[in-house]
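[Meeting: bench + compute handoff]

Bench side (C.D.) handed over the final construct sequence. Compute side (W.E.) agreed to return the predicted structure before the next meeting so the bench team could plan truncations. Sequence as handed over:
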Amino acid sequence: MSSHRVLVTDGETRACLAAVRGLAAAGFEVVAAAPRGQVAPAHWSRAVARRIRTPDPLADEDGFVSALADAVRGGEIDALIPGADASLLTVSRGRARLESYVRIGLPEPDAVWRSLDKVELAAAATRCGLAPPRTTICHGTSDALAAADELGYPAVVKPLRSVIESGSVRRRSGSELAIAPAELRTIVDGFGGEVLVQRRVVGALVSFGGVLAGGRLLGEAVSRYQRTWRPRAGNASYSETIDGPPELREQVGRLLTDLGWEGLFELELIERDDGGWHAIDMNPRPYGSMALAIGAGCNLPAIWCGQLLGEPAAAPVRAVAGTRYRWTDADVRHGLWQLRSGHPAVAAGVLSPRRRVIHAFARRSDPGPGLARVLELGSVAARRAVASGATGSAVSGGSAVGGRGHAPEPAVIIGAGPCGLAAAAHLRGFEVAVRVFGEPLEFWSRRMPEGMLLRSRRRSSNIADPQRALTIADYEAAEGRALRSPSLTREQFIDYGRWFARQVVPDVDTRRVSSVAAGGAGFRLRLEDGEELAASRVIVAAGLVPFMYRPEPFASLSPSVMSHAYDHDELDGFDGRRVAVVGSGQSALECAALLHERGAAVEVLARTAAVHWLPDDTLPEAHATGLSWRPALPPPPTDVGGRFTGWAAATPDVFRRLPSHMQPDVAFRCIRPAGSGWLRGRLSDVPITCGALVSQAREHDGQVTLTLEDGSSRTVDHVLLGTGYHVDVRRYPFLERDLAGAIEVADGGYPVLAPGLESSVRGLHFMGASAAHSFGPIMRFVVGTWHSAPAVARSVAGRRQPPISFAF
C-alpha cells in the first residue's frame, strides 16, 4: 500500500473517475481536479481526499497550468496524471512550470504530440504490423470527397488530432461516420478541412489498455466491445475482457516504442478476417472503460504511479478474462436506438439488467458518482426542455410534427454566428423558446486569417439585441477591456461575439445539424449523433461555407498550390514563397498585405480596371463619402454605401420595394470589390496588376503558371483566391433534396424572401448573405442583424411587422 498523493485531472470524465477509484483502492491519496462550472462525478466519489477546480484547458491553457502549479507548488502532491487529451497536451506544454514540484512522467513533448497525431499513429502502426484500414490524408472537402468516392461509403472521417487547434481556439473531436457526400462535407468542415478519410472495415472492436515503462508492458487489459455508443462510431458501452494473444502484445509494445510513448495508454483495434488487427485509435492517458481493467485485477493507474514514484517493480499484471463492463446510460441509449431501428429483440437484450458487471459510474460502495451522473443527465434534459418549453400558441402555425404526439421545437436556428445569435436574442425577447445549433463565431475563427481587421467600423459591428444592452461598449465595460478603434481585430470581434453568446444562449448546442426535411406542418431535423427532433420553424443562419467560389481557370489546381481565402485562419508558412493573390476586394487585398508582412513575395491580380479604395477614416468627410458634392442627406450610420445607396441599403423595406432594375445597381455600389483605405500603405510595396484576367492555370513541379488574356504569364509557388462567394441556398448540405427543390430562388440561388425573411417554404427563414437578394446588401454585414433579427423574431412570434425598419 502506498502513502503517496496523486493529482488526477478531468474529474468530469469516466477516465478520471476510474483512475481515482483505482488509485484509492491501492492506497494512494487522491486529489481530483475538474473544470469550473461542470458536474464532476469524480468529485462525488468517496475515493477522493481533496477536490480542486481549474479553468477548462480547452478554453484557458495558461490558466489551467497556473491552477495545477498552485496545487502542486507546496510539494504535497507527488504525481500528476492528465485525464484527457486536452489536459495531456497542456501539461506537456507547461511542464517547465510543474516538473520541479511534481512528477508527471511524460515523454518528451514531441513524443506526446506524436501520440496524439493520427497520421503518426497510422504510420507507426503500419511499421509494426497493425496497419489501419486504407487511409487517405485530405486537405479540404474536395480531397475528402474524392477519397470517399474511391474508398466507398460509409467512410470513417477523423480529425488529424483529437484536440483541434485553430489559433487560440481549441476543441475536442472524435471520429465520425459519413454515409453520403452531403454528410461528409459537413463533417470535414466541422473538423476544419484537414482530415483522414478511412475505409470502414467491419470487425470486432478490441481495446488494448496497459502501462508501458522502460520498454516493458507492466500491465495489460484486453477487452472486446460488445456494444458502443454512438452505434455508428463511438465508445464502448458494453465490453468484456479477453486473453490477449502474445503476438498482439509484441506488436503493441513495438508500436508504443516507435511513437516514443511511456505511461498509461489504450490502443483501439479492429480484428481482421485473417486473424490480424487494424490499429484505429490511441489514447495516451487514462481511458473511458479503464474501470474494466481495474475490476479485472489489473489496476493500471496504480501500476503506473508505483513505477513513476519509484516503488519496487512487480511482475507484469494481466486482466482476468471474462469480466464485463457497462456504461449504463450509454448502453440504455444504444438499446433505445435498436428499438427505434426496428430491432426489438436486440433492444430487449441490451436493456436487460446485468449482474456481476463493472459499472462506469454506479457502485454500491461509492454511490456519489452515480448520483452525479443522474444529475448531469437531468441537467442536460432540463436545458433542452427549457429550450423547447414554449407552446405552439407562441408560434404561428405551430402544430405538432412527427406523428408521435411530441410537441415540436417552436424554433431552431442553424448557425451561431452574429445572425444566429441576434435572432436568438430577439426570439427569447419575445419569450419564444429556441434552440441554437453551431459553434459560436465558427466561421470567423476558422475561415478568416489571424491578424485581420474588420472592414466595418466598430459602431456598425454591434450584434443586435432587443435591449441594446450587449454592444461592444457593454462588452468592454463588463470585461474591463478597451478594444481597437475605429475597427476591431478579428480576434477582438470573436471574443465579443462569444461573450454575446454567453449572455444570450449559454445553452448553445455545438452539435451539427446533418439534415433538415419537411415533415407534417413543420420540419424534421437530424443531428450529427443521430438524435432527431421536430421544429415548427427553422432559421438558417449558416453563413457562407458552401458558397466558396473558385473560377473555372483554377478548377484543376490541387490544394497544395491553390487555396481560397476561406481556407485560412492564419497565413504563416509562406515566407519566401511567390504568391499570386487573385481579386480586388477586401479579402484579397488584406490577405495580400498579411502575406507580404509575413515575408511572401506577393502580386495582386485584379480583374477590375482599378482598385476601388474606401475612404480612410483620417480623411475629410468630402473624401470619406467618395463624392464631389454634398447632398443634404447625411451618410448612413451603417458605413455601407454612399449617401443615397447607403440609406437605401440601411432601410431594407425600402430596398425590396425599389424597381427591380434599380436594385442591382444599388447593391453593386454598396458591395463592389473594394479595399479599406488603411490598407493602401500596407500594400505600397506590393505590385497590383489591374485588368488581369487569368485564362489558364497550369500546375507543374509544385508550381503554377498563370496565363493572362493579354498573353503575359506568371509562375508562382501558390495561388490564393480572394474571389468571394456565390450564394445558392440549395447547396446547404443539411437541406434534404426535396426541401431544397421547393425553395423559390432567383439570381442563381438566392431565396426569394417575404417579410420576416421567410422563404416560399412556410416556416423556413434565411438570414445573412442569403437574404441579400430580397433585402439588400446590408444583410451581408453584422449591422444587418438590426433589421433581420427582429424581423425574423416578429414573424416567428406572430407579431406584426412595422412598415419600415432600419438596419441600425
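W.E. noted at the follow-up: DSSP finds 25 helices and 34 strands in the chain. C.D. will use this when planning the next construct.
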